[in-house]
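Hi P.,

Sorry for the delay on this. The queue was packed all week, but I finally got your sequence through. Input first:
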Amino acid sequence: MSASESVIDRLKQWSSCDVSDGLSKLGHAHGGFLEGINLYSPDFVTGDTKIVGPVFTVKFEPKPNTSAPKVKGNYIDQIPRDAVVFISQPAPHINACYGGLMSLRAKALGAAGVVIDGSVRDLQEHRDLGFPLFARTHGTTAGGAVCFPSQVGVPVQLQSSIQEATINPNDYIIADKDGVVVLPADLAEQVLEIIPKVVSADEKCAEAIKGGMSVEEAFATFRGKK
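Then the structure:
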């Protein structure tokens, strides 16, 4: 088992919130959470769907940007097995940059799931496949008239007006109904060491609160917060 496979195997037992708590303990901005991106398939923000894997980035550019490079072939055919595809679509996100045929191919290649920092369409097609998909929004119109896939395997910036974040190739994504978290590869081992301690403290708090202890006392006793 490679180092990356070991990290992924251990991350699978934890939720996105657990990983965020671990990153927050290290002072990492926003606990790695990416605002505004939610689970759309196989269900909308419900159920037990969770994806964990190394990031494969796809950067789209606006159609008028003729100086930008273009991906050779189709990016969807280049997805590594078990990867989480992170697609960065330039705003505005009126047209969708991703549709049902893309999920059909991504699933066939063994992708863990797709995260779209932009718009998706063909929701029922993704859901019929049972394919994990997260997006910022959804719509009906294809994106070919407004944007194109420019590069793969490059750092991309979150398309947000209220949050700055960089998603790097081979970082890890943990995503579930609570949201999408990016775990920098160089922090993975530290976070995996922290998470069990945080989860254990929260479990003790929960039991104490069920038994009648105040939240203030429980936090002071098990989290060390006064």
